[in-house]
Specification:
Blueprint lengths: L9 E2 L6 E7 L3 E8 L4 E10 L5 E9 L1 H12 L8 E2 L3 H4 L5 H10 L7 E6 L4 E7 L2 H6 L13 H7 L7
Parallel strand pairs: 2-6
Antiparallel strand pairs: 1-8, 2-3, 3-4, 4-5, 5-7, 7-8
Helix pairs in contact: 1-3
Length: about 170
Amino acid sequence: MELSDLSFPIPTRSIFEKTVVHDWYDGVTSAIATSLRLRASFKIDIVAWGPRQETRVFVLSPFADRDFETIEDSLSRQEEPKWPIWFPAWAAWSSGSGELKSEIKDVLSRAKAPEYAAATDSMFETILAAWQLDNAARDSLPSDLDGLPSNDNFDDWKRRLHLYLSD
């Protein structure tokens, strides 16, 4: 089964049993997630958001299940996971320097090229639409998915995802 084969909107928890939020700005901007239903794990990066940031477009890059488990295990040493969506302490994950941050950054670098785009609400609770990326969409992506969306391409993503939203 492919992500784009599902009927939308759909709660993310019905697809992803575990989501670990990596970065945040008035909502999720990057994460990793694993899905038994899709038999896959993904690195999730924001590429656009609407004018009020309520609707966000993410690209999903295939990510090895063992790499998801490595990050989960590393973060679990710092605090108890809370599923289906876990917001670990930022200090252990994103800021500062240290062995844990380096380890996670190394694991994240092993994700493959983005395969899907998905529009969600800001809290990554509902997937509104998903689409398998074509070459033109991949070519339009920034070379560095750094958690910073671009407001100027939201309308293009809405069109590609066939979204009819006011945001």
